[in-house]
Automatic annotation (TrEMBL), chains A, B:
<protein>
    <recommendedName>
        <fullName>UDP-glucuronosyltransferase</fullName>
        <ecNumber>2.4.1.17</ecNumber>
    </recommendedName>
</protein>
<dbReference type="GO" id="GO:0005789">
    <property type="term" value="C:endoplasmic reticulum membrane"/>
</dbReference>
<dbReference type="GO" id="GO:0015020">
    <property type="term" value="F:glucuronosyltransferase activity"/>
</dbReference>
<keyword id="KW-0732">Signal</keyword>
<keyword id="KW-0328">Glycosyltransferase</keyword>
<feature type="transmembrane region" description="Helical">
    <location>
        <begin position="490"/>
        <end position="513"/>
    </location>
</feature>
<keyword id="KW-0256">Endoplasmic reticulum</keyword>
<keyword id="KW-0472">Membrane</keyword>
<dbReference type="InterPro" id="IPR035595">
    <property type="entry name" value="UDP_glycos_trans_CS"/>
</dbReference>
<keyword id="KW-0325">Glycoprotein</keyword>
<keyword id="KW-1133">Transmembrane helix</keyword>
<comment type="similarity">
    <text>Belongs to the UDP-glycosyltransferase family.</text>
</comment>
<feature type="signal peptide">
    <location>
        <begin position="1"/>
        <end position="24"/>
    </location>
</feature>
<dbReference type="Pfam" id="PF00201">
    <property type="entry name" value="UDPGT"/>
</dbReference>
<dbReference type="InterPro" id="IPR050271">
    <property type="entry name" value="UDP-glycosyltransferase"/>
</dbReference>
<keyword id="KW-0812">Transmembrane</keyword>
<dbReference type="InterPro" id="IPR002213">
    <property type="entry name" value="UDP_glucos_trans"/>
</dbReference>
Length: 532, 532
């Protein structure tokens, strides 16, 4: 354990030595809004502090990207016609659809439609970027060394292709396994669960059937989601591009993955894993929170947040939750900005914001109720706090499945959960020691790493800037078509050779047999004629 | 470039902080003899310096493992009946067979037989380990946390399985793609060249056919090589084991790989890449070498070594080489202990030993003539020295192919090369700037890394010691059989469902048609009867 603590200490000294030593490069950052920006911001800030000229490109009206803190990077905006209200409404409608109880297949169709709508709203902003001559001129003249982008809306990838700049992806993942497919990384369907399958890596036969069917469906629905994006890219790049074309020339993919949390699977040499980089820095608690935690006594506290992107839920759900929270002796700190449930118990403190990672790091924290966003889950793992997960949308169901399959938390179905379900789950993760033991084990493994994920991310962005890409990490598979990649032409050729050899052998045998028989026949005939 | 130099500096400060901070564990090391031990020794020494109790287990009579320098680890020997002469002779016969010009398929058969013989000699030593009750008792009582082993002769893996200890592999690779197969790592035959194929990752159709045929042959010949080892393991572990059984429970595989040199391909999360860890430490040249290098004038020097394991070659070959070396103005430092060729030119200095990495690091070094062993090739890459490669055996042909395909050197066929070929190749790599530019590019990429490979290796061995393995990095694929892994059962099921649906649909259609026809028929019949 001593050594585990020493590594981060030494790593920090290692990092402290680096700033100021680097030769400055020029980096263009095309981020994704909302929670995606949270950990990307840390990398961007670090790169700017290390002496690089970092320009973050965002629309004039963007969403959840407020720059409240001092930062070392430059922000460049481009004009858009979208209003903040429209973005808010698009996202609210998206969340609301997830909270509706519709029967199958209406639920799937409703989710597909609302997701496509949300995607379209953001694609529109990207379209307007390419209409802004002033912005394009500025970018063209800036002489960037590389682009760092979250690929979820393809805007950064299109821009990098447009300016022929090497680019680095920074992401949690993409729908339809695109992030692995574009990198030519095999994903065996038998033990690599697809996104939205909600399966673990140990699947039953029918889960494997389901996983395979999902992979077939992906062929269609991602082309649907991204239709507008592909159309825009094709127009901008003046050639027919596919999703894979757009993504497959990324030099390096920095992924917010850690195999304590993700299921082990094949990866590629240009993938860098930085899961949990968001929970490293710990600050002391603000006084008001310190006071609440200290007043919680021996029972300690429970931290409850449904993430920075969801601030309110339907009142009926809110009341059920409030009811359940009253059943535990812990003080519950609930981040919630909606209408206060009338049955709010005394042990529950509603707050508009909470220092989530710092609260989770406090030794008095007993449990974490979360929507299962990847940032929150990694904070739970870093700080070894067992979780109750209420996944809402996106990758959250899959994240919850991963935590639950490791015995480090319990998942509730937000549409069906009752007050009793919530109460039971919360009591279980607090009182049953196995949850704490499992999350502690995951935490120990997660924190035992040779280099801090933030430094790893910074290194690889700088690597691509210094060397103008990383072509030595690009597999030759990119130069093969589907038939060649799977060696189908080779197998067909070998089969043809085998069949031809067999055919010739059989023909030869038959010829020989016939010759023998003919000779025999002639002999016997001549014998016969002689006897006659 | 400044930053590139700063990383190693900061990394060293990072390392210097670590020794003495670690809590000591107990590590058993089962090494492989010869050149394999060279870089493993560095990791073992570092681990011992960091306060772990490290025991290196080797036979009383071992080969090329002389401990000339002071070391912090303990060496434990076990009694064997083999004589040093026998080991020497087995290896000499192995090299001699590679230097014989035999027609196909006699050459393949001769190489297969001599390799099997060499393998058997070393397996015999492992068998004697398991006969030594005293050694087994000592190992059993020592309470090791983990085993670090080079898997090439399977002895360490058998021992680790016998004592149920977690184990870490340290290797360059294994024949028959075993190191990837056992780790459940996909190796697409279309762009991942098999060992001994001598192909690059960009293969023609017929090279891909050849690669596929080699993979079929591997199914047979590795079972042949390892027959004695599997038999011993099955006896020792008292169950039927296969090669894959022996290898697939390695917690972590530390591989002497770098994708500057290796072709990019799928990898697994429990694979750690430490290629080039052997060429980090640079010492000043001994005086006698310093004097030779300084006296070489503006032309500089050429470093020539066929590795630590081959010290002499047939006289005819030696004379051809000597002749060629006289054709360049550079001073050639040739590590050679055999009979001196009578035509040795003045610019060639024969030495019994040379500080290879330090000489390659000297700015006056213009070229490196090497047999293409992986240690030497990495030293060439680290120090950006273009190479002439004369591969002899093992992975050397594949290594040479990799260097040549990157335009950083030229390969000669040691059996067929003439004096002119050697001279032409040497002059080309010295005078044609492209070789220097290419090796410089590879070197820049190789040295630009976030953490030193030695520290990475040390971290992962300690990780396995601390956590008693790394089960979170073990893919679920290990729990599937071949049919399940490739989803053949799922595809068969889906096909059956589709066929059944089709069958039922067709039957329904036919039934409906028949009903319609029948009705029509009846109507028309009744119509007819009415008209009558």
């Amino acid at each position: 354990m001593t050594l585990r603590l020493c590594y981060p200490l030494a790593a920090w000294i290692f990092i402290l030595l680096l700033p100021g030593l680097s030769e400055g490069g020029k980096l263009l950052v095309v981020p994704m809004v909302g929670s995606h920006w949270l950990s990307m911001k840390e990398v961007v800030q670090k790169l700017a502090e290390r002496g690089h000229e970092v320009v973050v490109l965002k629309p004039e009206v963007s969403w959840q990207m407020g720059e409240t803190q001092k930062h070392a990077y430059t922000v460049k905006t481009y004009p858009v016609s979208t209003k903040l209200e429209e973005l808010d409404n698009a996202f609210k409608a998206y969340v609301a659809t997830h909270l509706k109880s519709l029967p199958f297949p209406l639920n799937v169709l409703a989710l597909y439609n609302i997701s496509s709508n949300a995607f379209s709203t953001f694609f529109l902003q990207c379209k307007e970027l390419f209409s802004s001559t002033e912005t394009l001129q500025y970018l063209n003249q800036s002489g960037f060394d590389a682009v760092l982008t979250d690929p979820i809306f393809m805007c950064g990838a299109t821009l990098a292709n447009y300016f022929s700049l090497p680019f680095v992806f920074f992401m949690r993942g993409l729908p339809c396994n695109l992030h692995f497919e574009a990198a030519q990384c095999p994903s065996p369907l038998s033990y690599v669960p697809r996104t939205f399958s909600f399966s673990s890596d140990h699947m039953t036969f029918f889960q494997r059937v389901e996983n395979t069917l999902i992979s077939f469906l992906e062929l269609f629905y991602c082309n649907g989601y991204y239709r507008a994006a592909i159309q825009l890219s094709s127009e901008v790049l003046q050639r027919d591009v596919s999703l894979i074309d757009l993504l497959n020339s990324a030099a390096v993919s920095i992924m917010r993955f850690d195999f304590v949390f993700e299921y082990p699977r094949p990866v590629m040499p240009n993938m860098v894993f930085v899961g949990g980089m968001n929970c490293a820095e710990k600050k002391p608690l603000p006084k008001e929170f310190e006071a609440i935690v200290n007043a919680s006594g021996e029972h300690g506290i429970v931290v409850f947040s449904l993430g920075s992107m969801v601030s309110e839920i339907p009142m009926k759900k809110g009341m059920e939750i409030a009811d359940a929270l009253g059943s535990v002796p812990q003080t519950v700190l609930w981040r919630y900005t909606g209408e206060v449930p009338p049955n709010l118990p005394k042990n529950v403190k509603l707050v508009k914001w909470l220092p989530q990672n710092d609260l989770l790091a406090h030794p008095k924290t007993r449990a974490f109720i979360t929507h299962g966003g990847s940032h929150g889950v990694y904070e739970g793992i870093c700080n070894a706090v067992p979780m109750v997960l209420m996944p809402l949308f996106g990758d959250q169901m899959d994240n919850a499945k991963r935590v639950e399959s490791r015995g480090a938390g319990l998942t509730l179905n937000i549409l069906e959960m009752t007050s009793k379900d919530i109460s039971d789950a919360l009591k279980a993760v607090i009182n049953d020691k196995k949850y704490k033991e499992n999350i502690q084990r995951l935490s120990d493994l997660h924190l035992d790493r040779p280099i801090h994920p933030l430094d790893l991310a910074v290194h690889w962005v700088e690597f691509v800037m210094r060397h103008k890409g990383a072509p030595h990490l690009r597999p030759a598979a990119h130069d093969l078509n589907w038939i060649q990649y799977h060696s189908l032409d080779v197998f067909a050729f070998l089969l043809a050779v085998v069949l031809l050899s067999l055919f010739i052998s059989v023909k030869c045998c038959m010829f020989c047999c016939r010759r023998c028989c003919f000779k025999k026949g002639r002999k016997s005939k001549s014998g016969k004629s002689k006897t006659h």
